[in-house]
From TrEMBL:
It comes from the Eukaryota. InterPro entries: F-box-like_dom_sf, F-box_dom. Residues 13-60 form the F-box domain. PROSITE patterns: FBOX. This is F-box domain-containing protein.
Length: 477
């Protein structure tokens, strides 16, 4: 046999199993957790030598959650929703779960996020050590003592003498993921019961804390969706609206937007013991997530929230007919409140004409009205803003046409200097002038939807139990 063939034969016969145990003990700590568990599952010898513990299986699970099929690295962007494919590891039940099964702190805090590959947690090895529990404990203490930020910088970035915030973040990110647990595990261990002060009640709590009770926690979700009104918030996708949404009045800033940001809440139903979105419990009062105003719960502490049940539990206990009645009442509460609000704004806008005449001498509602109405020039009848407010919807719509025509004559819907001064002094009146027809159409749309669900409650039942509502409440949570 030639020397070359002997060398090849020697290389083929050299395996990890053929090495001395002392060398194996020196090689195994350089494996990652996935390779460590795979090696332990090859045969009885490595199984007995490695003797994988719970922390090793947890480490493998944390490596699996960073794979591309589980979402990979997640770049935190509060302006975007988490993709539905993003999944995280729960280190108590040892499962890879959708991100909706976790609260905000379990995913958004720096030390609980998925680490990028170049970070300290992304390069972490299994740190396996042989010996008894005492030897393993001494090894962990030595690792904690040596694994400081200064030592990490000297190993990974020896030429950088002034650490940047990005490097400090790379050192910390993902280092506490082994303490992450899902909402259900936190419930089973009593975490929510310990962190909800029942004696204070909701009205005296910090607005940034979670609410509910020990048996029915209500957890703030990181998902923030934009809805125009509560009917869309609690019945998303039920009645798609293709028209223009009217502007909403904001008391704390001049800026107006068509939709508001609503924070979703995950709630555990005591009946079926499933986590669902808060909309599944048919409770109309809900805080919004606003840029400057912290959300505040507007539910009396006397409310027996332990008696709340989700749509599926009500249908199973009392039948779909009873669920339909409750859903219709819930819809009417939301839709009628929004219609009343729109009607109030439609009427209140006419009140601003008197204010505009007092603050701008160039503007006269009487002149505007008489230019469009010949009979008013003869009879000298010009309805005052208070009189217009008391008119019917059709009569107000006709008079609004006069105001709209006047703005169009100004060019670009009121681009003249005098009109610009009006907009500057009263920005809400500008949105009222532009969105009057949009408010009317939205109110008529909600009224038509209310008539439709009253005539056929099965629409809401089908939506809540088997339609888009069930998917929104169940599949995401």
């Amino acid at each position: 046999m030639s020397p070359c063939s002997k060398s090849i034969s020697h290389q083929e016969s050299t395996t990890l199993l053929s090495l001395p145990v002392d060398l194996q003990i020196l090689i195994i700590p350089y494996l990652d957790f996935t390779s460590l568990i795979s090696l332990a599952q090859t045969n009885h010898f490595f199984r007995d030598l490695i003797n994988p513990q719970r922390q090793h299986f947890v480490g493998r699970l944390l490596e699996i959650e960073c794979l591309p099929n589980n979402g990979g690295e997640v770049t935190l962007d509060l302006l975007k929703d988490f993709p539905t494919t993003v999944r995280y590891a729960c280190t108590r039940c040892l499962k890879i779960l959708p991100h909706t099964k976790f609260d905000n702190h379990a995913l958004l805090r720096l030390r609980f996020r998925k680490p990028p590959p170049e970070s300290r947690a992304g390069k972490q090895l299994c740190s396996w050590t042989s010996g008894d529990a005492k030897a393993q404990g001494l090894k962990r203490q030595a690792d904690l003592k040596n694994n400081t930020f200064e030592n990490w910088m000297s190993r990974e970035h020896p030429l950088i003498f002034s650490p940047t915030p990005e490097l400090r973040e790379s050192y910390k990110i993902g280092t506490c993921r082994h303490r992450r647990t899902c909402n259900e595990c936190k419930f089973q261990t009593g975490f929510w019961a310990r962190n909800i002060n029942i004696n204070l009640g909701w009205g005296h709590r910090n607005d940034n804390q979670d609410v509910g009770t020990a048996s029915m926690p209500i957890i703030k979700s990181r998902q923030v969706y934009t809805y125009h009104d509560p009917s869309q918030r609690f019945f998303p996708g039920l009645f798609p609206y293709t028209g223009e949404f009217p502007a909403r009045l904001r008391s704390y800033r001049v800026h107006h937007i068509d939709r508001e940001a609503w924070c979703l809440y995950s709630t555990r139903c005591p009946g079926c013991e499933r986590w669902q979105e808060f909309a599944a419990f048919r409770q109309p009062r809900m805080p919004k997530s606003r840029p400057q105003d912290a959300p505040r719960w507007n539910i009396s502490w006397n409310s027996n929230i332990e008696a709340w049940r989700c749509n599926s539990c009500v249908a199973a206990a009392y039948g779909e007919q009873e669920l339909g009645k409750q859903l219709v009442a819930f819809w009417k509460t939301l839709a009628e409140a929004q219609v009343r609000l729109l009607d109030y704004r439609l009427e209140n806008g006419w009140r601003q004409f008197g204010y505009l005449e007092n603050t701008n001498k160039e503007f006269s509602w009487t002149r505007v009205y008489r230019r469009a109405r010949v009979e008013s020039q003869l009879l000298r009848e010009v309805p005052s803003p208070l009189e217009i407010m008391k008119m019917s919807v059709e009569a107000r719509r006709e008079i609004y046409g006069i105001w709209k025509q006047f703005l169009q004559e100004q060019g670009e819907w009121g681009s003249g200097d005098s009109i610009k001064n009006l907009w500057f002094k009263n920005p809400w009146f500008k949105h009222w002038s532009y969105g009057y027809e949009a408010m009317e159409k939205r109110a008529e749309f909600l009224k038509a939807c209310t008539d439709r669900v009253e005539a056929d409650p099965g629409i809401l039942v089908e939506y809540a139990l088997r339609g888009a509502g069930y998917e929104a409440m169940q599949m995401s949570y």
